[in-house]
Amino acid sequence: MQQVIQTEKLPIKMWLYDVEESALQQIKNIANLPFAFRHVCLMPDAHSGYGMPIGGVFATKEAIIPNAVGVDIGCGMCAIRTNIPYTELSHHTLKSIMSDIRGVIPLGFEHHKERQDERRMPQDYNIDEMKVVKQEYLSALKQIGTLGGGNHFIEIQKDNENIVWIMVHSGSRNIGLKVAEHYNKVAKKLNSLWQSSINPKADLAFLPFETREAREYYAEMKYCVEFAFGNRSLMMDRIVEIFRTTIKDITFEAMINIAHNYAAWEKHFDEKVLVHRKGATSAKAGETGIIPGSQGTSSFIIEGLGNPESFMSCSHGAGRIMSRNQAIKTLDLEEEKTRLDKLGIIHSIRHKRDLDEAASAYKDISQVMNLQSDLVKILYKLSPLAEIKG
Q: Are 78 and 240 within 8 A, CB to CB?
Protein backbone atom coordinates (compact mmCIF):
# COMPACT_ATOMS: atom_id res chain seq x y z
CA MET A 1 0.00 0.00 0.00
CA GLN A 2 1.50 3.30 -1.05
CA GLN A 3 -0.58 6.03 0.58
CA VAL A 4 -3.83 6.81 2.39
CA ILE A 5 -6.00 9.88 1.84
CA GLN A 6 -8.68 10.79 4.37
CA THR A 7 -11.96 12.17 3.04
CA GLU A 8 -14.92 13.59 4.94
CA LYS A 9 -16.21 10.06 5.52
CA LEU A 10 -13.87 7.17 4.63
CA PRO A 11 -10.15 6.82 3.83
CA ILE A 12 -8.89 6.11 0.31
CA LYS A 13 -6.16 3.46 0.15
CA MET A 14 -4.10 3.83 -3.02
CA TRP A 15 -1.54 1.45 -4.51
CA LEU A 16 0.05 4.19 -6.62
CA TYR A 17 1.87 7.49 -6.15
CA ASP A 18 0.38 9.57 -8.92
CA VAL A 19 -3.24 9.64 -10.02
CA GLU A 20 -4.97 12.01 -12.42
CA GLU A 21 -7.10 14.62 -10.69
CA SER A 22 -10.34 13.48 -12.32
CA ALA A 23 -9.87 9.89 -11.10
CA LEU A 24 -8.98 11.13 -7.62
CA GLN A 25 -12.16 13.20 -7.49
CA GLN A 26 -14.21 10.20 -8.61
CA ILE A 27 -12.82 7.97 -5.86
CA LYS A 28 -13.39 10.78 -3.32
CA ASN A 29 -17.04 10.81 -4.40
CA ILE A 30 -17.17 7.05 -3.75
CA ALA A 31 -15.51 7.44 -0.34
CA ASN A 32 -18.13 10.00 0.72
CA LEU A 33 -21.13 7.84 -0.19
CA PRO A 34 -23.33 7.29 2.87
CA PHE A 35 -23.38 3.51 2.33
CA ALA A 36 -19.70 2.91 1.46
CA PHE A 37 -18.05 0.40 3.81
CA ARG A 38 -14.84 0.88 5.82
CA HIS A 39 -12.55 2.35 3.10
CA VAL A 40 -12.22 2.53 -0.69
CA CYS A 41 -9.32 1.44 -2.90
CA LEU A 42 -7.45 2.51 -6.03
CA MET A 43 -5.37 -0.09 -7.79
CA PRO A 44 -2.05 0.89 -9.48
CA ASP A 45 -3.61 0.92 -12.96
CA ALA A 46 -6.29 3.46 -11.95
CA HIS A 47 -7.59 6.11 -14.35
CA SER A 48 -10.87 7.97 -14.94
CA GLY A 49 -14.06 6.12 -15.83
CA TYR A 50 -17.77 6.89 -15.77
CA GLY A 51 -18.71 7.71 -12.19
CA MET A 52 -16.12 5.39 -10.66
CA PRO A 53 -12.51 5.21 -11.83
CA ILE A 54 -11.22 2.16 -13.64
CA GLY A 55 -9.11 0.37 -11.05
CA GLY A 56 -11.53 1.22 -8.25
CA VAL A 57 -12.71 -1.18 -5.53
CA PHE A 58 -15.20 -0.55 -2.77
CA ALA A 59 -17.88 -2.35 -0.76
CA THR A 60 -21.38 -1.65 0.51
CA LYS A 61 -23.89 -3.43 2.71
CA GLU A 62 -27.11 -1.89 1.43
CA ALA A 63 -26.79 -0.72 -2.19
CA ILE A 64 -25.42 -1.44 -5.64
CA ILE A 65 -24.20 1.11 -8.23
CA PRO A 66 -24.38 0.11 -11.91
CA ASN A 67 -21.67 2.61 -12.89
CA ALA A 68 -19.35 1.08 -10.27
CA VAL A 69 -19.52 -2.15 -12.25
CA GLY A 70 -19.28 -0.58 -15.69
CA VAL A 71 -20.72 -1.13 -19.13
CA ASP A 72 -18.77 -4.24 -20.17
CA ILE A 73 -20.09 -6.42 -17.36
CA GLY A 74 -17.96 -9.48 -16.67
CA CYS A 75 -15.18 -8.43 -19.02
CA GLY A 76 -12.09 -10.43 -18.19
CA MET A 77 -9.25 -12.71 -19.14
CA CYS A 78 -8.68 -16.38 -19.75
CA ALA A 79 -5.41 -18.18 -20.42
CA ILE A 80 -4.21 -21.72 -21.10
CA ARG A 81 -0.69 -23.12 -20.87
CA THR A 82 0.34 -25.74 -23.43
CA ASN A 83 3.16 -28.29 -23.31
CA ILE A 84 4.88 -26.89 -26.42
CA PRO A 85 8.19 -24.97 -26.30
CA TYR A 86 7.89 -21.88 -28.49
CA THR A 87 10.97 -23.02 -30.42
CA GLU A 88 8.78 -25.79 -31.88
CA LEU A 89 6.33 -23.20 -33.21
CA SER A 90 7.73 -21.88 -36.50
CA HIS A 91 6.94 -18.39 -37.75
CA HIS A 92 5.03 -19.89 -40.67
CA THR A 93 2.98 -22.19 -38.39
CA LEU A 94 2.15 -19.34 -36.04
CA LYS A 95 1.00 -17.11 -38.92
CA SER A 96 -1.16 -19.97 -40.19
CA ILE A 97 -2.71 -20.44 -36.73
CA MET A 98 -3.50 -16.73 -36.44
CA SER A 99 -5.11 -16.77 -39.89
CA ASP A 100 -7.26 -19.76 -38.88
CA ILE A 101 -8.30 -17.98 -35.67
CA ARG A 102 -9.51 -14.98 -37.68
CA GLY A 103 -11.53 -17.39 -39.76
CA VAL A 104 -13.58 -18.72 -36.84
CA ILE A 105 -13.72 -15.78 -34.40
CA PRO A 106 -15.49 -12.58 -35.49
CA LEU A 107 -13.61 -9.40 -34.49
CA GLY A 108 -14.67 -5.85 -33.68
CA PHE A 109 -18.35 -5.26 -34.40
CA GLU A 110 -18.66 -8.52 -36.33
CA HIS A 111 -20.98 -11.29 -35.08
CA HIS A 112 -21.59 -14.88 -36.11
CA LYS A 113 -24.01 -15.22 -39.00
CA GLU A 114 -25.72 -18.14 -37.28
CA ARG A 115 -26.94 -18.54 -33.71
CA GLN A 116 -24.53 -20.55 -31.58
CA ASP A 117 -25.34 -23.55 -29.39
CA GLU A 118 -27.70 -22.43 -26.61
CA ARG A 119 -25.86 -24.71 -24.19
CA ARG A 120 -23.07 -22.13 -24.32
CA MET A 121 -25.38 -19.55 -22.76
CA PRO A 122 -25.74 -19.18 -18.97
CA GLN A 123 -27.99 -21.87 -17.54
CA ASP A 124 -30.23 -21.97 -14.43
CA TYR A 125 -31.76 -18.56 -15.10
CA ASN A 126 -35.37 -17.74 -15.89
CA ILE A 127 -34.82 -15.19 -18.62
CA ASP A 128 -38.56 -14.47 -18.77
CA GLU A 129 -37.97 -12.61 -15.48
CA MET A 130 -35.09 -10.60 -16.96
CA LYS A 131 -36.23 -7.61 -18.95
CA VAL A 132 -32.98 -6.76 -20.75
CA VAL A 133 -31.56 -10.28 -21.08
CA LYS A 134 -34.82 -11.53 -22.59
CA GLN A 135 -34.82 -8.65 -25.07
CA GLU A 136 -31.19 -9.26 -26.09
CA TYR A 137 -31.10 -13.06 -25.91
CA LEU A 138 -31.44 -13.94 -29.60
CA SER A 139 -28.86 -11.32 -30.60
CA ALA A 140 -26.52 -12.63 -27.89
CA LEU A 141 -26.69 -16.11 -29.44
CA LYS A 142 -24.83 -14.62 -32.43
CA GLN A 143 -22.43 -12.65 -30.24
CA ILE A 144 -21.19 -15.42 -27.98
CA GLY A 145 -17.75 -16.54 -29.14
CA THR A 146 -16.85 -13.13 -30.64
CA LEU A 147 -13.98 -10.89 -29.57
CA GLY A 148 -15.36 -7.37 -29.79
CA GLY A 149 -13.30 -4.21 -30.21
CA GLY A 150 -11.48 -1.72 -28.02
CA ASN A 151 -8.82 -3.30 -25.83
CA HIS A 152 -9.99 -6.87 -26.41
CA PHE A 153 -7.38 -9.19 -27.87
CA ILE A 154 -6.17 -12.72 -28.53
CA GLU A 155 -2.48 -13.40 -27.93
CA ILE A 156 -0.14 -16.34 -28.32
CA GLN A 157 2.64 -15.97 -25.75
CA LYS A 158 5.66 -17.67 -24.26
CA ASP A 159 6.45 -17.79 -20.55
CA ASN A 160 9.77 -17.49 -18.73
CA GLU A 161 10.22 -21.26 -19.24
CA ASN A 162 9.70 -20.77 -23.01
CA ILE A 163 6.36 -22.64 -23.02
CA VAL A 164 3.52 -21.45 -25.28
CA TRP A 165 0.36 -19.91 -23.79
CA ILE A 166 -2.95 -18.77 -25.30
CA MET A 167 -4.67 -15.69 -23.84
CA VAL A 168 -8.06 -14.10 -24.58
CA HIS A 169 -9.44 -10.78 -23.29
CA SER A 170 -13.13 -10.14 -23.94
CA GLY A 171 -16.41 -9.36 -22.21
CA SER A 172 -20.20 -9.53 -22.40
CA ARG A 173 -20.53 -7.79 -25.77
CA ASN A 174 -23.76 -5.86 -26.38
CA ILE A 175 -25.88 -7.65 -23.80
CA GLY A 176 -23.70 -6.35 -20.94
CA LEU A 177 -23.79 -2.83 -22.32
CA LYS A 178 -27.59 -2.89 -22.57
CA VAL A 179 -28.01 -4.17 -19.01
CA ALA A 180 -25.62 -1.51 -17.68
CA GLU A 181 -27.28 1.34 -19.54
CA HIS A 182 -30.82 0.28 -18.63
CA TYR A 183 -30.24 -0.02 -14.89
CA ASN A 184 -28.14 3.14 -14.68
CA LYS A 185 -31.10 5.00 -16.17
CA VAL A 186 -33.46 3.28 -13.71
CA ALA A 187 -31.19 4.24 -10.81
CA LYS A 188 -30.96 7.86 -11.97
CA LYS A 189 -34.73 8.14 -12.22
CA LEU A 190 -35.30 6.63 -8.79
CA ASN A 191 -32.60 8.74 -7.15
CA SER A 192 -34.29 11.84 -8.57
CA LEU A 193 -37.68 10.72 -7.22
CA TRP A 194 -36.15 10.08 -3.79
CA GLN A 195 -34.38 13.47 -3.90
CA SER A 196 -31.12 11.70 -3.12
CA SER A 197 -28.41 13.79 -1.49
CA ILE A 198 -25.80 12.32 -3.87
CA ASN A 199 -24.82 14.84 -6.54
CA PRO A 200 -26.20 13.57 -9.88
CA LYS A 201 -23.12 15.03 -11.61
CA ALA A 202 -21.03 12.37 -9.83
CA ASP A 203 -22.81 9.76 -11.99
CA LEU A 204 -23.15 7.34 -9.06
CA ALA A 205 -26.86 6.57 -9.14
CA PHE A 206 -27.56 3.67 -6.78
CA LEU A 207 -30.16 1.01 -6.12
CA PRO A 208 -30.85 0.02 -2.48
CA PHE A 209 -31.02 -3.75 -2.09
CA GLU A 210 -34.41 -3.47 -0.43
CA THR A 211 -35.79 -2.49 -3.85
CA ARG A 212 -36.95 -4.82 -6.60
CA GLU A 213 -34.85 -2.88 -9.12
CA ALA A 214 -31.61 -3.63 -7.25
CA ARG A 215 -32.35 -7.34 -7.15
CA GLU A 216 -33.26 -7.32 -10.85
CA TYR A 217 -30.03 -5.56 -11.76
CA TYR A 218 -27.96 -7.94 -9.65
CA ALA A 219 -29.54 -10.97 -11.34
CA GLU A 220 -29.04 -9.59 -14.85
CA MET A 221 -25.49 -8.50 -13.99
CA LYS A 222 -24.67 -12.05 -12.81
CA TYR A 223 -26.10 -13.41 -16.05
CA CYS A 224 -23.81 -11.10 -18.04
CA VAL A 225 -20.77 -12.16 -15.99
CA GLU A 226 -21.54 -15.78 -16.88
CA PHE A 227 -22.21 -14.84 -20.52
CA ALA A 228 -18.81 -13.13 -20.70
CA PHE A 229 -17.18 -16.29 -19.32
CA GLY A 230 -19.08 -18.38 -21.88
CA ASN A 231 -17.97 -15.99 -24.60
CA ARG A 232 -14.29 -16.38 -23.68
CA SER A 233 -14.66 -20.13 -23.22
CA LEU A 234 -16.14 -20.64 -26.69
CA MET A 235 -13.38 -18.61 -28.32
CA MET A 236 -10.75 -20.51 -26.35
CA ASP A 237 -12.25 -23.88 -27.32
CA ARG A 238 -12.07 -22.93 -31.00
CA ILE A 239 -8.48 -21.70 -30.68
CA VAL A 240 -7.49 -24.90 -28.86
CA GLU A 241 -9.03 -26.96 -31.66
CA ILE A 242 -6.95 -25.06 -34.23
CA PHE A 243 -3.79 -25.78 -32.23
CA ARG A 244 -4.75 -29.46 -31.93
CA THR A 245 -5.27 -29.70 -35.67
CA THR A 246 -1.98 -27.94 -36.41
CA ILE A 247 0.44 -29.32 -33.82
CA LYS A 248 0.88 -33.02 -33.11
CA ASP A 249 0.87 -34.23 -29.48
CA ILE A 250 -0.02 -30.83 -28.03
CA THR A 251 -1.73 -30.85 -24.61
CA PHE A 252 -3.37 -28.11 -22.57
CA GLU A 253 -3.53 -27.31 -18.87
CA ALA A 254 -6.77 -26.19 -17.20
CA MET A 255 -8.03 -22.77 -18.27
CA ILE A 256 -7.52 -19.82 -15.93
CA ASN A 257 -10.39 -17.31 -15.92
CA ILE A 258 -10.79 -14.02 -14.09
CA ALA A 259 -13.32 -11.18 -14.48
CA HIS A 260 -12.77 -7.51 -13.73
CA ASN A 261 -16.11 -5.66 -14.02
CA TYR A 262 -18.65 -6.98 -11.53
CA ALA A 263 -20.07 -6.85 -8.00
CA ALA A 264 -20.20 -9.86 -5.68
CA TRP A 265 -21.24 -10.65 -2.11
CA GLU A 266 -18.14 -11.56 -0.09
CA LYS A 267 -16.98 -11.58 3.53
CA HIS A 268 -14.50 -8.88 4.51
CA PHE A 269 -13.59 -7.61 7.98
CA ASP A 270 -16.13 -10.11 9.42
CA GLU A 271 -18.98 -8.50 7.47
CA LYS A 272 -20.95 -9.69 4.45
CA VAL A 273 -20.53 -6.92 1.90
CA LEU A 274 -21.08 -6.33 -1.79
CA VAL A 275 -17.68 -5.68 -3.35
CA HIS A 276 -17.70 -3.60 -6.54
CA ARG A 277 -14.67 -4.17 -8.77
CA LYS A 278 -14.42 -1.95 -11.84
CA GLY A 279 -11.24 -2.65 -13.75
CA ALA A 280 -9.94 -4.68 -10.83
CA THR A 281 -9.80 -8.41 -10.17
CA SER A 282 -10.15 -10.69 -7.20
CA ALA A 283 -6.84 -11.67 -5.56
CA LYS A 284 -7.82 -13.97 -2.71
CA ALA A 285 -5.04 -15.95 -1.03
CA GLY A 286 -3.94 -18.71 -3.41
CA GLU A 287 -6.26 -17.57 -6.22
CA THR A 288 -4.71 -17.69 -9.70
CA GLY A 289 -5.26 -14.62 -11.84
CA ILE A 290 -4.13 -12.81 -14.98
CA ILE A 291 -2.78 -9.27 -15.33
CA PRO A 292 -2.20 -8.40 -19.00
CA GLY A 293 0.12 -5.71 -20.27
CA SER A 294 -0.50 -3.39 -23.20
CA GLN A 295 0.05 -4.10 -26.88
CA GLY A 296 3.40 -5.85 -27.36
CA THR A 297 4.37 -5.87 -23.67
CA SER A 298 4.50 -8.56 -20.97
CA SER A 299 1.53 -10.11 -19.21
CA PHE A 300 1.56 -11.94 -15.90
CA ILE A 301 -0.01 -15.02 -14.39
CA ILE A 302 -0.27 -14.25 -10.69
CA GLU A 303 -1.32 -15.72 -7.36
CA GLY A 304 -3.35 -13.59 -4.99
CA LEU A 305 -2.00 -12.86 -1.51
CA GLY A 306 -5.42 -12.15 0.01
CA ASN A 307 -4.53 -8.68 1.29
CA PRO A 308 -7.58 -7.54 3.31
CA GLU A 309 -6.77 -3.85 2.82
CA SER A 310 -7.55 -4.09 -0.92
CA PHE A 311 -10.66 -6.21 -0.30
CA MET A 312 -8.44 -9.01 -1.68
CA SER A 313 -8.18 -7.31 -5.08
CA CYS A 314 -5.47 -6.29 -7.56
CA SER A 315 -5.11 -4.41 -10.84
CA HIS A 316 -6.66 -5.72 -14.05
CA GLY A 317 -3.92 -4.49 -16.37
CA ALA A 318 -1.49 -1.67 -17.00
CA GLY A 319 -3.95 1.26 -16.97
CA ARG A 320 -4.30 4.02 -19.54
CA ILE A 321 -2.36 7.29 -19.53
CA MET A 322 -3.92 8.44 -22.83
CA SER A 323 -7.50 8.27 -24.01
CA ARG A 324 -8.11 6.22 -27.14
CA ASN A 325 -8.70 9.34 -29.22
CA GLN A 326 -5.56 11.00 -27.87
CA ALA A 327 -3.48 7.92 -28.71
CA ILE A 328 -4.86 7.77 -32.26
CA LYS A 329 -4.21 11.49 -32.82
CA THR A 330 -0.73 11.76 -31.29
CA LEU A 331 1.09 8.43 -31.73
CA ASP A 332 2.96 7.42 -34.87
CA LEU A 333 1.65 4.39 -36.76
CA GLU A 334 4.94 3.50 -38.42
CA GLU A 335 6.80 3.71 -35.11
CA GLU A 336 4.33 1.31 -33.50
CA LYS A 337 4.53 -1.15 -36.39
CA THR A 338 8.34 -1.00 -36.35
CA ARG A 339 8.43 -1.56 -32.58
CA LEU A 340 6.29 -4.70 -32.83
CA ASP A 341 8.22 -5.94 -35.86
CA LYS A 342 11.54 -5.56 -34.04
CA LEU A 343 10.14 -7.60 -31.17
CA GLY A 344 9.25 -10.33 -33.68
CA ILE A 345 5.55 -10.15 -32.82
CA ILE A 346 3.07 -11.18 -35.50
CA HIS A 347 0.42 -8.45 -35.53
CA SER A 348 -2.25 -6.81 -37.68
CA ILE A 349 -1.57 -3.13 -36.95
CA ARG A 350 -2.47 -1.38 -40.21
CA HIS A 351 -4.46 1.78 -39.48
CA LYS A 352 -4.24 4.84 -37.22
CA ARG A 353 -7.24 3.54 -35.28
CA ASP A 354 -5.09 0.58 -34.17
CA LEU A 355 -2.95 2.97 -32.10
CA ASP A 356 -5.63 3.15 -29.40
CA GLU A 357 -4.00 0.18 -27.66
CA ALA A 358 -0.33 1.04 -28.29
CA ALA A 359 1.99 0.55 -25.33
CA SER A 360 2.68 4.31 -25.18
CA ALA A 361 -0.99 4.88 -24.31
CA TYR A 362 -0.58 2.80 -21.14
CA LYS A 363 1.41 2.79 -17.92
CA ASP A 364 4.54 0.66 -17.65
CA ILE A 365 3.25 -2.78 -16.63
CA SER A 366 6.48 -3.54 -14.72
CA GLN A 367 5.95 -0.50 -12.50
CA VAL A 368 2.31 -1.47 -11.99
CA MET A 369 3.39 -4.93 -10.84
CA ASN A 370 5.98 -3.48 -8.45
CA LEU A 371 3.35 -1.27 -6.84
CA GLN A 372 1.16 -4.26 -5.95
CA SER A 373 3.77 -6.67 -4.63
CA ASP A 374 1.77 -6.86 -1.38
CA LEU A 375 -1.36 -7.90 -3.34
CA VAL A 376 -0.04 -10.60 -5.69
CA LYS A 377 3.00 -12.70 -6.46
CA ILE A 378 4.10 -13.47 -10.01
CA LEU A 379 3.93 -17.09 -11.17
CA TYR A 380 4.76 -16.58 -14.85
CA LYS A 381 5.88 -13.64 -16.94
CA LEU A 382 4.51 -13.95 -20.48
CA SER A 383 5.90 -12.35 -23.66
CA PRO A 384 3.76 -11.97 -26.80
CA LEU A 385 4.57 -13.95 -29.94
CA ALA A 386 1.49 -13.05 -32.00
CA GLU A 387 -1.63 -11.02 -31.37
CA ILE A 388 -5.02 -10.22 -32.81
CA LYS A 389 -6.56 -6.91 -31.80
CA GLY A 390 -10.31 -6.52 -31.46
A: no
Q: What is the pLDDT along the chain (390 residues), one digit of tens a residue?
A: 678 988 889 999 999 988 999 999 999 999 999 999 999 999 999 999 999 999 999 999 999 999 999 999 999 999 999 999 999 999 999 999 999 999 999 999 999 999 999 999 999 999 999 999 999 999 999 999 999 998 999 999 999 999 999 999 999 999 999 999 999 999 999 999 999 988 888 999 999 999 999 999 999 999 999 999 999 999 999 999 999 999 999 999 999 999 999 999 999 999 999 999 999 999 999 999 999 998 889 999 999 999 999 999 999 999 888 888 888 888 888 888 888 888 888 887 888 888 888 888 888 999 999 999 999 999 999 999 999 998
What's the angle, vertex CA 225, arms to CA 224 and CA 230, rounded to 5?
Answer: 90
Closest C-alpha among 364, 235, 390, 373 to residue 293: 364
Distance of alpha carbon 123 from alpha carbon 226, whole angstroms: 9
Query: Could you give the CA distance from residue 261 to residue 276 in angstroms, rounded to a whole number?
Result: 8
For residue 56, count CB atoms less than 10 angstroms from its CB and return exposed for 0-12, middle for 13-18, buried for 19 or more: buried
Q: Which residues contact 123 (CB under 8 A, 6 or more apart)?
A: none
Residue type, 24: L
CA dist., res. 252 & res. 84, Å (int): 9
- List, in sequence order, the alpha helices (H) in the chain: 21-31, 91-104, 131-143, 173-193, 212-246, 324-330, 333-342, 365-371
DSSP state of 362: B
Q: Which domains does the chain have, with CATH numbers?
A: 3-321+362-389 (3.90.1860.10)
- Measuring CA to CA, which residue among 247, 288, 245 is closest to residue 89? 247
User: Known catalytic residues?
Assistant: 316
Between CA 40 and CA 19 the distance in angstroms is 15
